[in-house]
Write a structure and sequence with these properties.
3-stranded mixed β-sheet; 459 residues; 4-stranded mixed β-sheet; alpha/beta; 20 helices
C-alpha cells in the first residue's frame, strides 16, 4: 500500500520473520477514524444490516468522545490478513501498530483453536461476510425490511449460542430408527392426522415409540438447532441463522484467546521495536512510550484498575514466561492453549500480587471492597465472563410432538440468574421464527426458579 515507508512495514516484516514469527501476508489499509469505529462495532468492514449495530456504534462513539477509548487498528486474521489503521495515527503509532499486527498474524496462523476454526470457516472472512450481507440485502428486496429484520432480531440475539466443539457443517440428527432421512415436516403431518379416535392412532403410537427424541441430548447450539428444525421456517430464514452462526464461529477464537493474543502481539511489538536498528532514535523512544500506554494496567490517571486490561495481563504473563523458559516453550504454549488454560496455568500468585489483581464487590454507593486475592478465585473471576462466549448457557431440552420448544438455562453451570425482562424478549424473538410455543426454565436475578414462555394458547 502507499505510504508503507511511514511505518517501516517491509523492514518490520523481515525482522519479525528473523525471530521465527510465521504469518500469512497482511494487507494494511489506512482509513478515517469514523470508519475504524464502524469496523470495530460491526466486527467486519461489511456486515449484515441491523439496528443493533447502530446502537453499539453510538455507544462506541460516546466512549471515544469522552476519551475512554481510542482505536489504533483493527485486525482480521486470515489468508491474507487485513489490518485497518486510523489515518490520524502518527508515524510512531503506525510503526508500533505494524509490529503489533505481525504478532497477531503469527498467533492466528499457529494457534490450534484459530487453525481449527479457520479450516471450517475459511480464511477469507471479509469476503464471506460481504457475501452474507449481499444475500440479506436480496432477502430484503424480496421479503421486505420488516420481515427480514424480525429474523435478524432472533438470529443476532442468539449469536453467542453456538457449540464450537461441533462441526460448522454438522448433519441433522437421525430422527427414527427406521428411517434416518425422514423429514420433520412429514412427521408432523402424520401426527396431526392421528388424532384421538382416529384409526391411524395405533400406528402413530407405534411410530412414536421408535422415534428418537429431538434433540436426543441437550443441545446448546441454538442457531443450528433452530435453522435445522424450525417447523415453518422458510429457506431464506434458515440461511440467515446459518450465516450468523458461521460468523460467530469465526469470532470465537478472537474472544476465547483475547488475553493470550493481545499479550503475544504486545510482547512482540515491544521486542521488535527494541531490535529495530533501522528506526530513528526519536521514533523508537516515542514508540516505546506509546507501548507503555497500551500495556498500562490503569486508564488515564487512575491508580487502580477495576477491569482487566488484556494487553497488560497478557503481556506480563508472556514476558515472564519467555524470560524463564524461552521463546520456543512460549510458542508451544501459544499454539496449544486458549485463555482458560493460559490464565489458570501461567498466572501465578506472585505475578498476580505484583500486578495488584484482586476480586472486589462494588456497593451501590460506589464503595469498593476487596473480597479475595486467592489465586484460584482470581483465575475464575477473570475467566467467568469468557465462559460460553460470555453468554448464559442455554440448551434445547425437548421439541414436543406439536413442535413446542423447551429450553433450559444451565444456571448451575454458569453460576448466575437472568434479567427476566431481557430473557423474555429473546424468547419472543425466537417465537417469531419458530412459530410454535417456546418456554425456558431459568432463575431470575434473585436466584428464584421461573419459567418464561410465549405462544401458549389461553386456557
Amino acid at each position: 500500500m502507499a505510504g508503507d515507508s511511514r511505518f517501516y512495514r517491509t523492514e518490520m516484516e523481515a525482522l519479525a520473520r528473523s525471530f521465527g514469527l510465521d504469518f500469512y501476508p497482511v494487507e494494511f489499509e489506512v482509513v478515517p477514524p469514523s470508519f475504524m469505529t464502524e469496523v470495530a462495532v460491526y466486527g467486519l468492514p461489511v456486515r449484515m444490516p441491523h439496528w443493533s449495530f447502530g446502537v453499539r456504534y453510538i455507544h462506541q462513539l460516546v466512549q471515544h468522545k469522552m476519551g475512554h477509548s481510542r482505536i489504533f487498528e483493527v485486525v482480521y486474521p486470515g489468508d491474507p490478513g487485513h489490518a485497518f489503521l486510523a489515518n490520524n495515527n502518527s508515524d510512531v503509532d503506525n510503526t508500533l501498530v505494524c509490529a503489533h499486527v505481525l504478532g497477531h498474524a503469527d498467533f492466528s496462523k499457529n494457534n490450534e483453536l484459530f487453525r481449527r476454526v479457520h479450516k471450517q470457516v475459511g480464511t477469507r472472512i471479509v469476503d464471506m461476510a460481504a457475501h452474507h450481507a449481499r444475500r440479506i440485502e436480496q432477502a430484503i428486496e424480496h421479503h421486505g425490511q420488516e420481515h427480514v429484520e424480525r429474523v435478524l432480531d432472533a438470529a443476532l440475539s442468539l449469536e453467542q449460542h453456538i457449540d464450537i466443539n461441533q462441526s460448522l457443517s454438522r448433519a441433522r440428527y437421525s430422527e427414527s430408527e427406521e428411517d434416518a432421512e425422514e423429514s420433520l415436516l412429514n412427521t408432523f403431518a402424520r401426527r396431526f392426522v392421528a388424532l384421538a379416535g382416529n384409526k391411524e392412532k395405533e400406528k402413530s403410537d407405534q411410530e412414536e415409540h421408535s422415534r428418537t427424541p429431538i434433540p436426543p441430548h441437550p443441545e446448546q447450539d441454538l442457531l443450528w438447532f433452530i435453522a435445522q428444525y424450525g417447523p415453518e421456517m422458510e429457506d431464506w430464514e434458515r440461511d440467515i441463522f446459518l450465516a450468523v452462526r458461521e460468523e460467530s464461529f469465526y469470532f470465537y477464537p478472537v474472544f476465547a484467546c483475547q488475553i493470550m493474543n493481545e499479550g503475544w502481539a504486545s510482547y512482540w511489538h515491544a521486542r521488535l521495536l527494541r531490535e529495530a536498528s533501522f528506526l530513528p532514535q526519536d521514533l523508537y523512544l516515542d514508540a516505546m512510550k506509546t507501548h507503555s500506554d497500551v500495556v498500562r494496567p490503569t486508564a488515564g490517571d487512575k491508580q487502580i484498575a477495576l477491569n482487566i486490561n488484556p494487553y497488560h495481563l497478557g503481556f506480563s504473563i508472556w514476558d515472564r514466561l519467555i524470560e524463564a523458559e524461552g521463546v520456543e516453550k512460549a510458542r508451544t504454549i501459544m499454539q496449544s492453549e486458549d485463555d482458560f488454560g493460559f490464565v489458570r496455568n501461567y498466572l501465578e500468585s506472585d505475578l498476580a500480587d505484583e500486578l495488584n489483581i484482586f476480586v472486589y464487590d462494588a456497593n451501590k454507593n460506589g464503595e469498593i471492597k476487596v473480597t479475595n486475592n486467592e489465586i484460584h478465585q482470581l483465575h475464575e473471576a477473570i475467566l467467568s465472563r469468557k465462559f460460553n462466549f460470555g453468554a448464559p448457557r442455554v440448551q434445547v431440552t425437548e421439541m414436543g410432538v406439536d413442535g413446542a420448544l423447551e429450553l433450559k438455562h444451565e444456571s448451575d453451570v454458569d453460576g448466575r440468574g437472568l434479567d427476566t425482562e431481557r430473557a423474555k424478549k429473546v424468547i419472543d424473538y425466537i417465537h417469531r421464527v419458530w412459530r410454535r410455543p417456546v418456554s425456558m426454565r431459568t432463575l431470575d436475578a434473585n436466584g428464584k426458579e421461573t419459567t418464561l414462555e410465549t405462544g401458549k394458547a389461553a386456557a
